[in-house]
Automatic annotation (TrEMBL):
Alphabetical UniProt keywords: Aromatic hydrocarbons catabolism, ATP-binding, DNA-binding, Nucleotide-binding, Transcription, Transcription regulation
The Sigma-54 factor interaction domain, residue ranges: 368-597
CDD domains: AAA
Any single Pfam family the record assigns to this protein: AAA_lid_14
Protein name, entry field: HTH-type transcriptional regulatory protein TyrR
Lineage per the UniProt record: Bacteria, Bacillati, Bacillota, Bacilli, Bacillales
Length: 677
């Protein structure tokens, strides 16, 4: 708000009422001013300007004659806001003590207001890099801000009062602005500077008095647009990433109100169909449905926390809550969650319940953990095959869990209450295999138990025998095994009678049995006998969805074993998920144990996982290697592109890459545009 005292000028020339034109002219010249006020009995009653004195002489008045003065003046308290009154050409300000504080013609007040408003506007846009120039209706520069000075590269002292139109070349006719038209996004050039900006007409009492030009340097603007474009793309890319991710991202304000849900909405956990149903609600409303309330944990502990939350319907999610602070004050909590409800088979549960009842299960139970569709459909087929007694061959790389699947078949079969006997064909010394498998009669050989001993086939009677590492079975044993499969009877070593055995055979191998047959290392007839119902267990790298629940499962069991409390950071999980796992689930289990032991903190973070999986990566920096000659400019451009691509792959954001490469984010975005082309 602009007040009268902001625009008043001091009164310097006063002449008495009735004084001559000559006296007035003398007063004006001695005070070096253009306006003199007329006083009568201590009060100002009018004013006279040099211009009107000259007019009086011009019409033939003598300079000795008394002055004719204007009296359309108004006295106002100088603290009230400036406003204009009809039929008043001069305002005199009165201060709080009743004294005269100054004067202003209406025209001066209007100009001053324009100027002060521009100064205020300039303060508002200060820092935004916008230049501002005001000209009068003769195109003379009357005001310009500091940004305009620095954009144009010329000092204000040089530019003031110059004809702006003559300094500028522009595609539009500036007279149109003086006719009241606003011109936007006009390109112009001053002092070789390319500008882009808007022209706004200024008017007083409906009369155009000039215009304001607001502008910026075109190259800055283009850079900003590019940056905006880049950010927009980044935003939509991120949105796509969130939408396709397996994680649920929850943003909660400091009071507990759920502001936003991104990524995969875990509706089984919330027990509501859509994310919209929880947005805007207090997290506390749901905390009765699941335990623990990780938001409260995060707020009270004032740090990142992780927890496995379980709903009443036994949906388990793994969550990390991170507090977000702004100027030391908690602003938000971001919770990243994943569903880790193990898709346990009903049979595994049955077996567990059964074992829990029995004395035998003192050791930790092994569950079959998975979330991938691949394993889900494999299990469907396994369960179907389990119902019959046919021989099953499980093929798969070492460590994929063939034994776990063999047990699953057994538990899903009608033989579940009968023995499950595992034979590791590769681990038994060759000379003992026969007696282990088929048993022996008393005195069958030196060192044999004098009572004789039943073999594993006999022990597995009515149940299942699991022949692991079947490819390691020596050829002579292969013949004997073939006989058992065909005849369903065995003869103990040193025995003469046959013993019938009713067993379901499950064989497993990590070798290519077909290739072994071709090489003469495995009997073809046995191969066909075993290969009745074959199943391929996919390696872990082909079912990445299983990595996370398995990693959590192993972590939980090691936590119980070692009595310690550790958790993965989300970054650590990403590293685990992108690793190739040549040793499959067994390797994952071992790595998790190593991580537990090696990580010193409460968190198993990305760095320790990288270190354990890939070893120390502090390799010596290799200088770039040039293999062929090319123009230097091309080589530099190529290297730049490669650095940016590498950086984007590693860090994903232009901001981080620009920091690492030591250039501005705008440079990165420009180069990336080129890469995309
Ligand atoms: N889906 C799973 N859920 C839980 N644990 C699993 C799963 N798959 C494998 N494991 C665990 O991984 C380890 C290796 O599994 P297993 O011994 O069954 O593999 P394998 O395929 O038989 O290996 P090999 O060919 O070397 O004998 C075991 O400790 C097993 O309990």
């Amino acid at each position: 708000m602009i007040r009268w005292k902001d625009v008043l000028k001091p009164i310097t020339a006063v002449v008495n009422h009735g004084h001559s034109i000559k006296a007035a002219i003398q007063c004006l010249t001695s005070q070096n001013t253009d306006i003199a006020f007329i006083e009568n009995q201590g009060s100002l009653i009018g004013y006279v300007t040099t211009h009107c004195l000259l007019e009086q002489i011009d019409v033939g008045q003598s300079i000795e004659e008394p002055i004719r003065y204007k009296n359309d003046i108004l006295k106002v308290p100088d603290t009230i806001p400036v406003e204009f009154f009809h039929n008043v050409s001069m305002v005199i300000g009165v201060d709080s003590q009743g004294g005269i504080s100054g004067y202003s013609t209406i025209q001066h007040a209007r100009n001053r207001i324009n100027e002060l408003e521009l100064i205020q506007l300039n303060e508002m846009i200060h820092g935004a890099g916008v230049g501002m120039v005001r000209v009068n209706n003769k195109f003379e520069i009357e005001f310009m801000n500091e940004t305009a000075e620095s954009i144009l590269g010329m000092p204000r002292s040089f530019l003031m009062s110059r004809n702006y139109k003559k300094l500028m070349t522009t595609e539009k006719d500036l007279h149109r602005v003086l006719e009241g038209e606003t011109l936007v996004s006009v390109n112009s050039q001053i002092n070789f500077k390319q500008l882009s900006g808007d022209f706004y007409p200024l008017s007083t009492d409906g009369k155009i008095t000039g215009f304001v030009h607001m502008f910026y340097l075109r190259e800055d603007f283009e850079e900003a647009v590019q940056e905006l474009d880049f950010v927009r793309h980044l935003y939509s890319d991120l949105q796509a990433v969130y939408d396709s991710s397996n994680e649920q991202i929850l943003v909660i304000d400091e009071k507990g109100i759920i502001l936003r849900v991104a990524g995969k909405f875990l509706n089984d956990f919330w027990e509501t169909g859509q994310a919209e149903n929880i947005i805007g609600k207090h997290i506390g409303e749901f905390s009765k449905e699941f335990q623990p309330n990780i938001f409260d944990l995060c707020v009270t502990q004032k740090k990142k926390v992780t927890s496995i939350q379980e709903s009443h319907h036994r949906t388990r999610i793994w969550s990390v809550a991170t507090p977000v602070y702004h100027e030391g004050k908690l602003e938000k909590v971001v919770i990243l969650s994943r569903d880790i409800t193990p898709t346990e088979s009903v049979y595994a549960n049955k077996e567990r319940d059964r074992k829990e009842d029995s004395q035998a299960s003192k050791t930790e139970k092994r569950e079959l953990i998975y979330r991938s569709d691949k394993i889900a459909s494999l299990l469907e087929n396994l369960h179907r095959a389990a119902k019959m007694s046919s021989t099953i061959l499980l093929e798969g790389e070492s460590g994929v869990g063939k034994e776990v699947f063999a047990r699953e078949i057994h538990t899903a079969s009608p033989r579940q209450d009968h023995p499950f006997i595992r034979v590791n064909c590769g681990a038994i010394p060759e000379q003992l295999i026969e007696s282990e498998l088929f048993g022996y009669e008393k005195g069958a050989f030196t060192g044999a138990d004098h009572k004789g001993k039943a073999g594993l086939f006999e022990l597995a009677h009515t149940g299942t025998i699991f022949l692991d590492e079947i490819g390691d079975l020596p050829l002579n044993m292969q013949v004997k095994l073939l006989r058992v499969i065909q005849e369903r009877e065995i003869v103990r070593i040193g025995g003469t009678s046959t013993i019938p055995v009713d067993v379901r055979i499950i064989a497993a191998t990590n070798k290519d049995l077909k290739a072994m047959v071709a090489d003469g290392k495995f009997r073809e007839d046995l191969f066909y006998r075993l290969n009745v119902i074959p199943f391929q267990i996919p390696p872990l790298r082909e079912r990445k969805e299983d990595i996370f629940p398995l990693a959590v499962y192993f972590l939980e069991s090691f936590k119980r074993k070692y009595h310690i409390n550790k958790s993965y950071t989300p970054d650590a999980i990403s590293v685990l998920e992108t690793y190739g796992w040549p040793g499959n689930v067994r390797e994952l289990e071992n790595i998790v144990e190593r991580l537990i032991v090696l990580s010193s903190e409460e968190w198993i973070d990305r760095d320790i996982v990288l270190k354990v999986l890939y070893g120390d990566s502090d390799k010596v920096k290799k200088p770039p290697l040039v293999l062929e000659l090319m123009p230097m400019k091309e080589a530099v451009a190529e290297l730049e592109m490669q650095l940016i691509e590498l950086g984007m792959k590693k860090y994903g954001t232009a901001a981080k890459v620009s920091e690492i490469l030591g250039v501005s984010p705008a440079t990165i975005s420009r180069r990336m545009k080129k890469i995309k082309k």
